């Protein structure tokens, strides 16, 4: 890997990590715990659309691990990794079909991230009662996905080519 590529990865990971920090200190005034905008996913979307699947996956997973080690505890990192993994897989598949724009891919990613976290929480807590959170998480994932997808598309328009 050349120096330019390593530098680009480092910058993207650092930016995603900073966005994770900002989000960890922001309080979202909603009654359902865990709802966030997912601003670090702006960086993942940019990496996915500018650099490809592997770089996007690397940025996403490294950001989740770094944020988990820095701002959260092990269980939170496990939830985030589950959400990150499911979200990435779905986003990669939808982008590959060519039938979805960045906003659609982002919405699916937001919803799947929430679903992944919810599934892990239900397994750890051994209760399906957490499914009652899903409608609120579905709505928040859609809203966040649209916001992040629109912002990501605007950012990519303004970035210089590869």
Distance between the termini: 16 Å
Helical/strand content category: mainly alpha
**How many strand segments?**
0
Computed CA radius of gyration, to the nearest angstrom: 15 Å
Give the overall shape.
globular
Strand fraction band? under 5%
- The helix content, as a percent range, equals over 70%
Can you summarize the main beta sheet?
none
Question: Average pLDDT, to the nearest integer?
Answer: 91
Features:
globular, mainly alpha, 162 residues
Describe the structure.
The protein has 162 residues and is mainly alpha-helical. The chain is 77% helix and 0% strand. It has six helices and no strands. The radius of gyration is 15 Å and the shape is globular. The mean pLDDT is 91.
Task: Give a brief rundown of this model.
The protein is mostly helical and 162 residues long.
Walk me through the topology.
Elements: H1 3-25, H2 41-50, H3 53-71, H4 74-97, H5 102-125, H6 134-158
Helix pairs in contact: 1-2, 1-3, 2-3, 2-6, 3-4, 4-5, 5-6
């Amino acid at each position: 890997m050349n120096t330019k590529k390593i530098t680009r990865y480092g910058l993207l990971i650092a930016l995603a990590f900073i966005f994770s920090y900002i989000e960890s200190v922001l309080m979202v005034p909603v009654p359902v715990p865990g709802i966030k905008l997912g601003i670090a996913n702006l960086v993942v979307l940019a990496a996915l659309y500018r650099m490809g699947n592997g770089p996007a996956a690397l940025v996403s997973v490294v950001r989740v691990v770094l944020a988990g080690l820095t701002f959260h505890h092990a269980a939170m990192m496990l939830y985030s990794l589950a959400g990150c993994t499911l979200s990435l897989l779905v986003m990669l598949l939808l982008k590959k079909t060519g039938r979805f724009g960045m906003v659609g891919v982002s919405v699916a990613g937001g919803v799947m991230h929430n679903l992944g976290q919810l599934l892990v929480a239900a397994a750890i807590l051994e209760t399906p009662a957490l499914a009652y959170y899903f409608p609120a998480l579905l709505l928040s994932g859609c809203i966040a996905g649209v916001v992040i997808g629109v912002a990501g598309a605007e950012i990519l328009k303004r970035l210089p080519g590869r």
